[in-house]
Design a protein that fits this description.
Layout lengths: L3 E7 L3 E8 L2 E9 L2 H4 L9 H14 L9 E4 L11 E3 L2 H9 L9 H14 L3 E4 L9 H4 L14 H14 L8 E7 L3 E7 L2 E5 L19 H10 L3 H6 L7 H5 L4 H9 L3 H24 L6 E6 L5 H11 L5 E5 L3 H13 L19
Parallel strand pairs: 1-4, 4-6, 7-10, 10-11
Antiparallel strand pairs: 1-2, 2-3, 5-6, 7-8, 8-9
Helix pairs in contact: 3-4, 6-13, 10-11, 11-12
InterPro entries: Aliphatic_acid_kin_short-chain, Aliphatic_acid_kinase_CS, ATPase_NBD, Butyrate_kin
Subcellular location: Cytoplasm
EC number: 2.7.2.7
């Protein structure tokens, strides 16, 4: 059976919407939101009616009949840590999404809320798939050298797992039977180890971990970072280095990766150094994730916007192909990943999980 699915992925100043007939994307739109209008709302969840009405306008223009949709899928922001999978949206999910139970305020919180709005109106199910707080780490990946401080799973889980699932399907194998190093290389860079269908390790892109990225500092020596914090007492300014003002922004005052690459190719020595450093660090982390998998790696998979850069892919391939074959999947599969998760449940291939409202791991576990 070919199911019709509507997917909703809210971002900072826009909401991506996709309409699928089976696995075929029939319609997509990036609904823009006025920044000044968004600033009028006290909190993220207060934006829901405004974003909903704009989405409905675009859907009406496209001639889509929402009563024919079999399931609605939203990005699952605001939740506590969960095992990967597809979750049916219920009141617990909605409560946590509305208030941002994970302590991170992000428009992705609106994904499940918007999906539920439409689903309730048409008496259809609503889902979230591999939420941003998907956490399948093994205990050794969580531990640090400071008692009471633990590494957390903050990665591009939706795209990472979908890239691995798609690669497996294309090669006639099961994701649950294979080991991969999967990378998302975009505004943030996630490098993750997938063992038999579980994402067992990876860098925390929120906490300043992993490779440098266009807006992120990546891993830095702890003592130097502590000294920096003492010398720069503005906590917000210091924390912003991990997600907004680090990486290319700190060194070159731009987050435009294409601009940095073009400057490097044109002979700008500083731009070349920063670009090459990012590439070097990506390679380093791929190697570390391969070691986590004991060298038993069936493929190194590259996804994300920067993977459109053929030189970047070539440099990573040259450095890492001795570990395993390197395959590039440029761009993102986020809308496709959400639709695919819902279809797996509707087809009975996968059972929808229940969000317990409790983190899947705590230090007491």
């Amino acid at each position: 059976m070919s199911y019709k699915i509507l997917t909703i992925n809210p971002g900072s100043t826009s909401t991506k919407v996709g309409y699928f007939d089976g696995d075929k994307l029939e319609f997509s739109v990036n609904v823009s939101h006025d920044a000044a209008k968004l600033a009028e709302f006290a909190g993220i969840s207060d934006q829901l009616p405004y974003r909903r009405d704009l989405i409905l306008e675009e859907i009406k223009k496209a001639g889509i009949d929402l009563s024919q949709v079999d399931a609605f899928v939203g990005r699952g922001g605001g939740l506590l840590s969960v095992e990967g999978g597809t979750y049916k949206v219920d009141e617990t999910i909605l409560d946590h999404a509305r208030r941002g139970a994970n302590g991170i305020q992000h428009p992705a919180q609106l994904g499940s809320q918007l999906a539920a709005e439409f689903a309730n109106q048409y008496s259809k199910p609503a889902f979230v798939v591999n939420p941003p707080d998907t956490d399948e780490f093994i205990i050794e990946a969580r531990m640090t050298g400071i008692k009471g401080v633990y590494r957390q799973s903050h990665l591009h889980a939706l795209n990472l797992k979908e890239t691995a699932i798609r690669h497996s399907n294309l090669n006639g194998v099961k994701y649950e039977d294979k080991n991969y190093v999967v990378c998302h290389i975009g505004g943030g860079v996630s490098i993750s180890a997938h063992r038999k269908g579980k994402m067992i390790d990876g860098n925390d892109i929120v906490a300043g971990d992993g490779p440098m990225a266009p807006t992120r500092c990546g891993s830095v020596p702890a003592a130097q970072m502590i000294r920096y914090a003492y010398e720069h007492p503005d906590k917000k300014e210091t924390l912003s280095l991990t997600t907004k003002t680090g990486g290319f922004v700190s060194h070159l005052n731009t987050s435009d990766a294409l601009d940095v690459f073009n400057r490097a190719e044109a002979g700008d020595k500083e731009a070349k150094l920063i670009w090459d450093t990012m590439t070097y660090q990506i390679i380093r982390y791929i190697g570390s994730m391969a070691a986590v998998l004991h060298g038993q790696v069936d493929g190194i998979l590259l996804g994300g916007g920067m993977v459109h850069n053929k030189k970047l892919v070539a440099d990573i391939t040259e450095a890492c192909s001795w570990i395993a074959p390197v395959t590039a999947y440029p761009g993102e599969f986020e809308l496709e990943a959400m639709a695919a998760g819902a279809i797996r449940v509707l087809d009975g291939v996968e059972e929808a999980k229940v969000y317990t409202g409790e983190p899947c791991w705590t230090p007491e576990d």
